[in-house]
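Appendix B. Chain record.
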Amino acid sequence: MIIRDLYTEKGVNETVERINNLTPDTKPKWGKMSVDQMLAHCNVAYQMAYKSDDYKKPGAFGRFMIKLFVKKAVVGPNPYPKNGRTAPEFIIEGSRDFEVEKNKLVSYIIKSHKLGRDHFDNKESVSLGKLTADEWNVCFSKHLDHHLNQFDV
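Structure tokens predicted for this chain:
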């Protein structure tokens, strides 16, 4: 697993290049998602960051459990396991438009790069609470790397 710095042009360019190597026919090495579903799934992380009002925040007990058990897995150094469980908000049902989802994901990555570290430092996550700029980067980069590896790009 490689955590790319998505606040740098190099990290953004490497990630976008990998995304651009996907085609509507790219098959996964594991898991049940199609490539269009995977792109839509990856977009959810950015939608939660930019449109957080569209998502329900967990209650006090839920936040406690997430911080206790989930946060370290999301922003920590270890890779995600193959075929791991995902939050219900990230489950994509049905087919999506490959090009629309791909373009949306690239736009989110570029938008985040342009906004930069300062924008994300102490920005609140819907479920994880306030995160540092580095934690946001790990959150985005690790998730993208996991799924781009899933589709062998």
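Further analysis of this model is presented in Appendix C.
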